[in-house]
Specification:
The chain is mostly helical. 40% of the residues are buried. The chain has one domain: ABC transporter involved in vitamin B12 uptake, BtuC (Orthogonal Bundle). It is globular. The N terminus is likely disordered. Helix 15 packs antiparallel against helix 16. Keywords: Cell membrane, Membrane, Transmembrane, Transmembrane helix.
Length: 343
């Protein structure tokens, strides 16, 4: 034991007490299990609004992919829609050209986006935060213009029609009411969430937090900072591609909108609302953002963005860390109240 205690720790390796902390974080609580059972009652309670719930699931996955590179690695991006759009066009083009199998199409979408993320990561990570913002935005704008120009392939401004998906496992057809698309999106979101949750609760996830907090200190102890950032950016791009492919398969249509700037901006807004650097922040933020958007646009179709902006200002002023930060603050206050009563 003494020899193990005195043994030098290798760079990037989590100390024993950190490993215990990571194992505790990796455990599933009863509240988390109940949370992931919610799609069942939602299916029966909001059967007529399943397309909205499907859209929330896809946006949540997209926000989770951005949260990995922003909330954990600290890489600021304004062009994350580039990988979302690549995934959407990959899945859509496969279906148009005769391969409409959903699962392999989704894997192909993730693979193409992962490769693009890996290649572009070396360019994105060369500069500071401002440079990264501009480079990611430039990549997204270039892909948008390329998709517009290559109308013979992508459909251009008219969109990509003829995206016909085969039944999942040859059994579950994509119906008009969106039942299959809803469950398909929820299951893909859950599987992706489990994978991302495992990543952020691993020694690699702990190293990403260290890189975000103090990259100079991480370099001083010998941690491969650039390699960690490349991995995080590549993985985040891959999951964004899966989200894009999921949208193409669920709606059976792809347009230039998947590469538009507002896609990246929406993901950032979702993380502001839900809270970045928290695995459930993207999901809660996506649900709150889409529900608020639907509700406000129904009340004031012309001015819903004004009220949404006002709500964001209030949230930033009084709920630091988004909905997750508000929840944590309430839990801490409850614990303090209990401790004071116990005394």
């Amino acid at each position: 034991m003494e020899a193990q205690r005195r043994a030098p720790q290798r760079a990037g390796e989590a100390p024993p007490h950190a490993g215990l902390l990571l194992r505790r974080r990796a455990r599933w609580s009863a509240m988390e299990i109940l949370f992931w059972l919610l799609p069942i009652p939602l299916f029966f309670l909001f059967g007529l609004r399943l397309p909205l719930l499907t859209e929330i699931a896809i946006l949540a996955l997209f926000a989770l992919s951005l949260d990995l590179i922003l909330g954990y690695a600290g890489i600021v991006s304004l062009g994350h829609a580039a990988f979302f759009g690549l995934g959407a066009y990959t899945a859509g083009l496969l279906a148009v050209h005769g391969w409409g199998e959903p699962i392999t199409g989704l894997l192909a979408a993730g693979a193409v986006a992962t490769a693009a993320g890996f290649v572009s990561s070396f360019l994105v990570l060369r500069g500071s935060d401002l440079t990264r913002l501009m480079v990611t935005l430039a990549i997204s704008m270039m892909l948008l213009e390329a998709a517009n120009r290559l109308a013979w392939l992508t459909g251009g401004a008219d969109g990509l029609y003829g995206v016909t998906m085969w039944p999942i496992f040859g059994i579950f057809e994509f119906d008009l009411y969106g039942h299959t698309a809803y469950w398909y999106s929820v299951i893909v979101l859950f599987i992706s969430f489990v994978a991302l949750r495992a990543i952020v609760n691993s020694p690699f996830g702990l190293a990403l937090r260290g890189v975000k907090g103090n990259p100079l200190r991480m370099r001083a102890i010998g941690a491969p900072v650039n390699r960690h950032l490349v991995k995080a950016f590549t993985i985040g791009a891959g999951f964004a591609g899966i989200a894009g492919g999921l949208l193409a398969q669920a709606t059976q249509f792809v347009s230039l909108d998947v590469l538009a700037f507002h896609r990246s901006a929406e993901a950032l807004l979702v993380l502001v609302i839900g809270g970045s650097g928290a695995v459930y922040g993207g999901i809660l933020g996506a649900a709150a953002f889409r529900v608020l958007q639907e509700w406000l646009s129904g009340i004031t179709p012309q001015y819903w963005q004004f009220w949404l902006g006002a709500g964001l200002i209030v949230l930033v002023l009084f709920a630091r860390g988004g909905l997750i930060g508000l929840w944590r603050a309430l839990v801490r206050r409850l614990h303090r109240t209990r401790d004071e009563e116990a005394r």
